[in-house]
């Protein structure tokens, strides 16, 4: 399994017990749907290694306490601290309406209320304080904020996102 075929679930942040249990900080709004997992992929080096789970349960909101089959002592658990956990993309719960996963809108056309087609979404930059669509039109890159105020509709069938960008934003990028 490759990382491109998976989504980031969370990161091992600490040991929980002397029996090798670990605590994982989940990157999700709904941690409870991951309580009964049977396995995950753990990123070790450049590889995703499958780890099977004896037991997992929520621990204080967004932390998941995991007892892996292969990890039964503190030394083994220490080696996992900082490791990222992944699951296959097909395990993501389906979203509907105007909610979407960043990876699913790559390649969608962005349609602005005023300007019409303003390009194709190439990627999403979520490493800044404001998440941004990176849109390309005729060799130019536009950075469009991801915000409920800007996104009007998501049309999965047509692969379009309809937006109403702040006045002047599109002109800033597309003027000659």
TrEMBL record:
BP-aspect Gene Ontology terms: ribosomal small subunit biogenesis; rRNA processing
Residue ranges of every copy of the Ribosome maturation factor RimM PRC barrel domain listed in the record: 103-169
Highest taxon listed in the record's lineage: Bacteria
Keyword field contains Chaperone: yes
GO CC annotations, alphabetized: cytoplasm; ribosome
InterPro entries for the chain: PRC_barrel-like_sf, PRC_RimM, RimM, RimM_N, RimM_N_sf, Transl_B-barrel_sf
Residue span, RimM N-terminal domain: 9-88
Residues forming coiled coils: none
Main subcellular location of this protein, as a coarse class: cytoplasm
Subunit structure: Binds ribosomal protein uS19.
Entry comment, domain topic: The PRC barrel domain binds ribosomal protein uS19.
Family stated for the protein in its record: Belongs to the RimM family.
Function: An accessory protein needed during the final step in the assembly of 30S ribosomal subunit, possibly for assembly of the head region. Essential for efficient processing of 16S rRNA. May be needed both before and after RbfA during the maturation of 16S rRNA. It has affinity for free ribosomal 30S subunits but not for 70S ribosomes.
Protein name from the UniProt record: Ribosome maturation factor RimM
Organism of derivation: Flagellimonas allohymeniacidonis
């Amino acid at each position: 399994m490759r990382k491109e075929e998976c989504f980031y679930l969370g990161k091992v942040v600490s040991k929980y017990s002397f029996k090798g249990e670990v605590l994982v900080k989940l990157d999700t709004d709904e941690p409870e749907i991951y309580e009964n997992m049977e396995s995950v992929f753990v990123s070790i080096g450049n590889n995703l290694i499958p780890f099977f789970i004896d037991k997992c349960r929520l621990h204080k909101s967004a932390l998941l306490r995991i007892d892996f089959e292969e990890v039964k002592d503190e030394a083994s658990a220490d080696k996992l601290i900082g490791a990222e956990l992944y699951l296959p993309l097909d395990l993501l719960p389906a979203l509907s309406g105007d909610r979407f996963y960043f990876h699913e809108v790559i390649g969608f056309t962005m349609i602005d209320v005023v300007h019409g087609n303003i390009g194709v979404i190439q990627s999403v930059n979520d490493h800044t304080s404001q998440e941004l669509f990176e849109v390309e039109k005729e060799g130019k890159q536009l950075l469009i904020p991801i915000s409920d105020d800007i996104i009007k509709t998501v049309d999965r069938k047509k692969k379009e996102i309809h937006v109403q960008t702040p006045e002047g934003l599109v002109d800033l990028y597309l003027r000659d």
